[in-house]
Amino acid sequence: MLTLLFDGVAYGMLLFILAIGLAVTLGLMNFINLAHGAFAMAGGYTTVLLMQHAGLPFLVCVPLAFVFTALLGALLEVTLYRRMYNKPHLDQVLFSIGLTFMAVAGVDYVVGSTQQLVQLPDYLKGRTELWDGALGMGHYRLAIIVVCALLAIGLQLLLVRTRFGSQLRASVDNQRVAAGLGIDVNKVFLVTFAVGSGLAGLGGALGAEVLGLDPIFPLKFMIYFLIVVAVGGTSGLTGPLLAALLLGIADVAGKYYVPKLGAFIVYSLMIIILMWRPQGLFVRGGK
Amino acid sequence: MSADIVLSCEGLVKRFGGITATDHVSLQLARGARHALIGPNGAGKTTLINLLTGVLEPTAGRIHLLGEDISHMAPHQRVRRGLVRTFQINQLFEGLTPLQTLAMTVSQHLGQGAAWWHALGHDARIGQRCEALLAQFHLTEVMDQPTAHLAYGKRRLLEMAIALACEPSVLLLDEPVAGVPAGERDELLRTVAALPADVTVVLIEHDMDLVFSFANRMTVLVNGAVLTEGTPSEMAADPRVREVYLGHGDQHV
Amino acid sequence: MNSVSHRLRSSSQPRWWEFGVWALLLVLPYVMPSHALLISEITIIALFAMSLDLILGYSGIVSLGHAAFFGMGAYSAALFAKHIHPDPLWGLAVATMVSAVLGLVCSLGVLRGSDLTRLMVTLGVALILQELANKLDFMTGGADGLQGVVMGPVLGRFEFDLMGQTAAWYALLITLLVFLLLRRVVHAPFGYSLQAIRDNPLRARAIGIPVHARLMSVYTLAAALAGMAGGLQAQTTGFASLDVFGFDRSADVLLMLVIGGTGWLWGGIIGAVVFKSLHSVISAWTPQYWTFWLGLFLVLLMLVGRERLIRPWTWGRRA
């Protein structure tokens, strides 16, 4: 049971890093970006391809995945996304679905549709058993938890302690007023989108071994990212973090205890939560 | 109390987190009253209207309409009982034309809002009522234009026309002439003045000339609480009111 | 009758070309018998798209899971025909009723919350149903689908022929009837109140419209009609498979409606025709990478502005 909890937490932390960019994009630009999963996929494939063809070690590829995906995000933000900010949500949904379709088909064409396998370095393989096997910690999952926790803390510090962070928070709160105060809202959008996409790519790179990597990755996992954002809310980091952990644990536990029902439990739980608290589980109600 | 009280609230409170937007407000409106609600910006006038109409849930206090406790009644049910409002910022149906908007409102008021077999306007009364409203509010020439394309003055007129299409017994007007060009302004004011005597009207306004010519009673709201209440002349003479609101020079719009 | 009344009434009168198009559609199975299956397919999707228009175009509810009801109808009709009675009209009635009930229940989930919440709830329901259909394989055939659905003759007289002509006419007539019904609904006060709710729910409440009740009614109706479309699908093709609940199906119908134009019933029909034609043409050319071109089309369409598609004279202008 403890092992399940551990695995669930690892999964949850990974989901958090993957989804946090989506949460911030929605909160900041009020943009529903269903193509977020494609950035995660880009990070995963970057890592795999660099390892396979350039022979670069895993630890180098992962940060490169972040950088590459962040740059990709920045490019797309400036050229495409920026024009869609003021459009109705339906248009944004269809636009991002379109991008996703293009990414999925494009990757399928270039790389092929087989699952990509990531060769982890030896020091990340292996497992430690505690308390007579009651808690089995895969080293890789442990590493994921640590890395993601550090990233989460780093993000929080960025948000709360830096000037950029306060500009970001101001822009999320009220765009027009922020612009009136002299904050370069365009720049805030660009950097935020780039970092958010980069984090997704990082998550994709880290998660390739745990979640699997193939061209339909964005479609498979998009619902999970959306759940994190819808349930966790878009104001702040703690909401999505808690939602991601909840989701990770529920999914792992559900698949273990009731494999017949599979993801059914997660979807039902999500619907019930959203019907009970439409604004998200962790948002304090205003009215 | 010999006056026929149609709308009243007792000890109405609304808190948002740490902020008290409405602070134990009590109000009594007699039938046919012409009541003005004034106060500086941020005094909580619109919040009070939102509470009375059900857009906001009160934290405490009660609201009574025609003897019935409506404190927790849904907004659309209050409208059915004759409590109607206009909005400070136009709230219109951008995709519909003025004719369609008014026809639908009148249908709803006649209890046909959910009719699904006969076309809008099947009932001749609807066409007649719309024609009258369109003429009264000078919207006849633009009746077929999508609301999104209307000029601001026309939009403001439509805003009020919609409210009147509901045949209110209590009408709450939130700054009805704000931003309206002079010609249409007088039209609006004439329409308000021409309302039947038994319709109770509450007016939120900043324009003191308008307030003094229109109202027979005034309530002054400051920081969410009632500062004082009385006839316009009493208010004009009250030094506290002057200080808070009238005392800083001309407050004309 | 004064002129205002007259104007109101005239906007609900059918246009001359509407009669023409329907007449054309109805003779198609006779004129192009070899394409009867395609005609059925397009008609069924058009019905599905019209049902989505009710909630998307007229009521403003963005749904990514409308296939939940389509699938419910498909499996209901298939199971009814297989285990209870092969009569198509009874089966269709059952499919419609079952989907209506599901719609009513689900409508509670789309009343409150943001667009994202609604997206999630609708998506979630479709995914759950897909999972259920997958897991309850003793009944549904699981991943293999429900095969061997043999239908009895329509109205006891018209046998389903191998060419698919009967199926095509069956689908066309049902869709026509639904179209006529929906035409009345959208031009009635009910239809206009939906548009009011779409445009400004706050004001809708402020004029006495019971927003939640209206949304629940229209969602139930839309679900019922989507279920009817699904039922037709199962009946005319003879089987039902998991993809009736698929995200692809929900996304495709959404796209079709956007192509044809939301908020006027013809959008569903036009969108279905255009989409299916594009699909046939492009798939013949690059069968594997249809999704890429579809994606590109979507991206470009959204960048340019979707109202522009059906207004070619705006293509040259800047936004």
Blueprint of the fold:
The complex is a heterotrimer of chains A (287), B (253) and C (319).
Chain A: H1 2-29, H2 36-54, H3 58-79, H4 89-111, E1 127-130, E2 135-138, H5 139-161, H6 163-173, H7 175-180, H8 185-211, H9 217-232, H10 238-257, H11 264-276
Antiparallel strand pairs in A: 1-2
Helix pairs in contact in A: 1-5, 1-6, 1-8, 1-9, 1-10, 2-3, 2-8, 2-9, 3-8, 5-6, 6-8, 9-10
Chain B: E1 5-16, E2 19-30, E3 34-38, H1 45-53, E4 60-65, E5 68-69, H2 75-80, E6 83-85, H3 98-109, H4 124-136, H5 152-165, E7 170-174, H6 182-193, E8 200-204, H7 208-214, E9 217-222, E10 225-230, H8 232-237, H9 239-246
Parallel strand pairs in B: 3-8, 3-9, 6-7, 7-8
Antiparallel strand pairs in B: 1-2, 1-4, 4-5, 9-10
Chain C: H1 3-10, H2 16-31, H3 36-58, H4 67-83, H5 88-107, H6 115-135, H7 137-140, H8 165-187, H9 189-199, H10 201-206, H11 211-237, H12 247-260, H13 266-285, H14 290-304
Helix pairs in contact in C: 2-8, 3-8, 3-11, 3-12, 3-13, 4-5, 4-6, 4-11, 5-11, 8-11, 9-11, 12-13
Provide a descriptive summary of the structure in words:
The complex is a heterotrimer of chains A (287), B (253) and C (319). Chain A is mainly alpha-helical. Helix content of chain A is 72%, strand content 3%. Chain A has one domain. Chain A has a two-stranded antiparallel ribbon. In chain A, β1 (127-130) and β2 form a beta hairpin. In chain A, α1 (2-29) packs antiparallel against α8 (185-211) and α1 packs across α9. Chain B is an alpha/beta fold and 253 residues long. Chain B has 2 domains: 1-82 and 168-253, Rossmann fold; 91-166, no CATH class. Helix content of chain B is 34%, strand content 25%. Chain B is built from 9 helices and 10 strands. In chain B, the strands form 2 sheets. In chain B, strands 6-7-8-3-9-10 form a 6-stranded mixed β-sheet, with helices on both faces. In chain B, strands 2-1-4-5 form a 4-stranded antiparallel β-sheet, covered by helices on one side. Chain B starts with a strand and ends in a 7-residue tail after the last helix. Chain C is 71% helix and 0% strand. By secondary structure, chain C is mainly alpha-helical. Chains in contact: A-B, A-C, B-C. Chain A binds chain B through residues 286-287, and chain B through 16-17, 56-57.
Key traits:
heterotrimer, B: alpha/beta, Rossmann fold, 2 domains, 6-stranded mixed β-sheet, 4-stranded antiparallel β-sheet, C: 319 residues, mainly alpha
